[in-house]
Design goal:
It is a single chain. The protein contains 15 helices and 23 strands. Helix 1 runs parallel beside helix 2, helix 5 crosses helix 8 and helix 14 runs parallel beside helix 15. The protein is α/β, with parallel strands linked by helices. The relative contact order is 0.09. It is globular and about 65 Å long. It has three domains: about 90 residues, 3-Layer(aba) Sandwich (Rossmann fold), CATH 3.40.50; about 210 residues, 3-Layer(aba) Sandwich (UDP-N-acetylmuramoyl-L-alanine:D-glutamate ligase), CATH 3.40.1190; about 150 residues, Protein-Tyrosine Phosphatase, Chain A, CATH 3.90.190.20.
């Protein structure tokens, strides 16, 4: 078949494109937001990427058009699809039909940590000999890709609570047929589609109802909202419940967590009895919580305990999750996808743990629909507490945030952060941010750049500026 993907450079859409190609289908796609790592992955696969949206991209007519969830009515290609009555589906529909139906599916859901947890699960199942297919919303460093298609019965997928498409406003994870359903945590997020926390809880309650009686719900017991949702199911929870966390009443509990020599070490107890000791390159208690459901799922699928221990030790993480993009003259530049205030706080806290004696410089772009919105104004103040120096760019889509009911007030946020007795600045232009940092940074600094988009190529620009500064300051040879 010929599949055409509208919005192909989205993390999940690009992965689906690669999976369809691996299945032998012809794949084309279009997008207007083209940046690494997904654009480079598509180029490497030889998938034809068309810039911008144009009805002409649909000639000759594809057998099926996949409409990304960020694509609205009014898009020229969508309108052409409807006018010509071409077959179209959402990403989750295609994924279920082509890859999940009839297989054993592990679906990783939760407000935070989905990508890391799903990536780790794919690696652990792989090292355990299960040879899983997988789809992750990021590039898994151990594999160098965000997807894989195999002939095994096992499938690992990131389960997003965001909506599916303009014609299907339900969560993506409702399509993924979980045998094992992970819910790591629940918080209010996606203010553009969920009215309040109760609406988010309803979505997760429906997700819990998908797991079969011979499957498992693997629930993060450190999250009070996960507890609430599970409790609200009552006798209607028809699957087996496994709980995990650092709290005393979790069935699977992490204890004795410590960080040293570049590794996080912890012990796992099941029902009070020690199950195994683990170590991982991932940093912070929140990443220990990301490890726990993977351990439980791997055990449920019969992976040997020693293989799980070994896989956690060798897992390298995901692109754009505390990823060191480069270091120049002792200044480390780190790329992270964090945008929700909890993710910002946990990312900066983990970096503070790893780089104990170094200055942490936080650079943040409010780009996601959540981070652009005034809902989290006060929470962002606390999120930047672990940083020593803060720069916040402009709200990426202020008009959209205003339509949703309120825009994040950057000036007020900067004032509130500065009141913590730390330098804090609002700088709109990316090039100006780079100039400011190039003048300010000194050896030993760690720059954490946080955005869920390309942020104007700021990482490469900053590294180039630091290299140019270093060249100017070095004595000439000859």
């Amino acid at each position: 078949m010929h599949y055409h993907l509208i919005g192909i450079c989205g993390t999940a859409m690009a992965s689906l494109a690669g999976m369809l190609q691996a299945r032998g289908h012809r794949v084309t796609g279009s997008d207007e937001s083209v940046y690494p790592p997904m654009s480079t992955m598509l180029e490497g696969l030889g998938i034809h990427l068309m810039h911008g949206y144009d009805a002409a991209h649909l000639t000759p007519a594809p057998d099926c058009v996949v409409v990304g969830n960020a694509i609205p009515r009014g898009n020229p290609e969508v309108e052409s699809v409807l006018n010509r009555r071409l077959p179209y589906r959402s990403l989750p529909e295609v994924l279920k039909k082509e890859f999940i139906r009839g297989r054993r599916s592990l679906v990783v859901a939760g407000t935070h940590g989905k990508t890391t947890t799903t990536s780790l699960a794919a690696w652990v199942m792989d090292q355990g000999g299960l040879d899983p297919s997988f789809l992750v919303g990021g590039v898994v460093q151990n594999f160098g890709v965000s997807f894989r298609v195999t002939g095994s019965d096992y499938f690992v997928v990131e389960g997003d609570e965001y909506d599916t498409a303009y014609f299907d406003k339900g969560p993506k994870f409702m399509h993924y047929l979980p045998e094992l359903a992970v819910v790591n945590n629940i918080e209010f997020d996606h203010a553009d589609i969920y009215h309040d926390l109760d609406a988010v809880k309803i979505a997760f309650r429906r997700f819990l109802n998908l797991a079969p009686g011979n499957g498992k719900l693997i629930a993060g017991w450190d999250s009070p909202h996960v507890r609430d949702v599970v409790a609200s199911m009552g006798q209607r929870l028809f699957t087996q419940l496994e709980t995990f966390g650092t709290c005393e009443d979790a069935r699977w509990r992490a204890r004795d967590i410590e960080y040293s020599a570049g590794m996080t070490r912890f012990s796992v107890f099941r029902e009070g009895r020690k199950w195994a000791d683990f170590q991982t390159l991932l940093i912070g208690d929140f990443n220990v919580r990301n490890c726990l459901p993977v351990i439980i799922a791997a055990d449920a699928w019969g992976v040997e305990r020693e293989a799980i221990v070994g896989a956690l030790k060798t897992f390298k993480s995901v692109r754009r999750r505390c990823e060191v993009r480069g270091e120049v003259n002792g200044v480390a530049v780190i790329d992270d996808f964090a945008h929700h205030p909890t993710a910002v706080r946990e990312t900066l806290g983990a970096l503070r743990l790893k780089y104990r004696d170094r200055r942490i410089v936080a650079v943040f772009e409010p780009r996601s629909r959540t981070s652009c919105h005034a809902t989290f104004q006060d929470q962002y103040v606390g999120a930047f507490m672990p940083a020593d120096y803060v720069i916040i760019s402009r709200v990426f889509d202020a008009q959209r945030a205003a339509e949703m009911g309120g825009v994040l007030d950057i000036a007020r946020l900067i004032d509130d952060i500065a009141a913590q007795n730390k330098p804090a600045f609002a700088i709109t232009d990316v090039d100006e941010i780079v100039r400011s940092l190039a003048a300010e940074l000194r050896s030993g600094d760690v720059v954490a750049i946080m955005s869920n988009g390309g942020f104007g190529g700021i990482h490469e620009k900053l590294l180039a500026a630091l290299q140019a500064r270093e060249a100017r300051s070095s004595p000439r040879q000859g």
